[in-house]
Design a protein that fits this description.
- This protein is mainly β.
- The chain has helices at about 345, 370-375, and strands spanning about 5-10, 25-30, 40-45, 50-55, 60, 65, 75, 90-95, 100-105, 115-120, 125-130, 135, 140-145, 150, 160, 170-175, 205, 215-225, 225-235, 240-245, 250-255, 270-275, 280-285, 285-290, 300-305, 310-315, 330, 335-340, 355, 355-365, 370.
- The chain has a domain at about 260-380: Sandwich (Jelly Rolls), CATH 2.60.120.
- Bound molecules: fe (ii) ion.
- Fe (ii) ion binds near residues 302 and 338.
Amino acid sequence: MPFYQKKGQLPHKRHTQFAKPDGTLHHEQLFGTIGFDGMSSLLYHLHPPTMVTSVEAPRNARPIEGVKEHITSRRVQGFNVPSSGAALASRVPLMFNADCVIAVARPDAPDPQARFYKNADSDEVVFIHDGTGTLHTMFGDLAYKPGDYLVVPRGVIHRWSPEKGSDQRWLVIESAQPIVTPKRYRNHFGQLLEHSPYCERDFRSPELQEPVNQTGAFPIDIRKEGMIHTVTYERHPFDVVGWDGYHFPYAFSIHDFEPITGRVHQPPPVHQTFETNAFVICSFCPRLYDYHPKSIPAPYNHSNIDSDEVLYYVEGNFMSRKGISRGDLTLHPGGIPHGPHPGTYEGSIGKTETAELAVMVDTFRPLRLTQQAIDIEDTGYHTSWLGYTPQKID
Ligand SMILES: [Fe+2]
């Protein structure tokens, strides 16, 4: 995030001697992006973060194609996906391309106390549909609750602790490109502008914990080039006494997104929450409808010529679609138009507000479906726009 954070103990000057009470040195680590050109933070460890004891043979974690090239609108019932285990094991990829993986997860066990995960390929956004718990990271802890987007930049060592007895439903988006807030929301210096649908106060940064000063065997599952490599370290990775900078995991609640409304229907970019070079993430939140006396609140038909659109349905009735349940995902591929279901266009006239809550991912390159998605697909979805009967407007 482009705002400065400072936690714990730091030396007055970067790259200078910073002694522990016993007179030995702390160990500085630059954690940065885009070479030395992107956002970065400096972390101060009790011990060097480099003490590897073993590296295991990697295992394949790449999504497997169920469908390659296609031009079919699809509906996948995300809550029907078999998913269990700890955070990483419970992930089920449904759609992907070279830029991203879209998965759902229903973890029912915490990550082990001394085992960690690091995605070296991708930034991750974990949208918490259901469930509470804590994301533990080397920057500190982030408590989470339903509606939170947890943004975990690539390279952050972490583990998940879902609260016991709390049913978890997550949407997980992995991005090969950095995930950032839209540039048009920020000024030259990175500060969020007045027209942005959120401001810095809405973002939660990690609470730094007491450093863990432990020797032992600390395996980190590292995703690199789609493979999981287990690298075991001699020192606990959460031995950070302080950090500062602009680069860290953070949380943002979809309920803190302030919708932008108008007299006539506003296009999807007003819902934009995050961006990458290859896709955007939007939040459709409860809001007042358009207030032009002749407005049609439901969206007009629109052509997805150069992007695939994925909608993940969270709560409420989605104004333009019928037969949609919580946790469903719809995919409207580029190349063909899509629009409101029969009856919903006219049916939206006169309505004053919507309670819909949904997350949208629009990718600029076509998505593939995994076999896990095909296994739970509603195969009739693409013909569900038939049966339209024109209705007279009063
Ligand atoms: Fe659309």
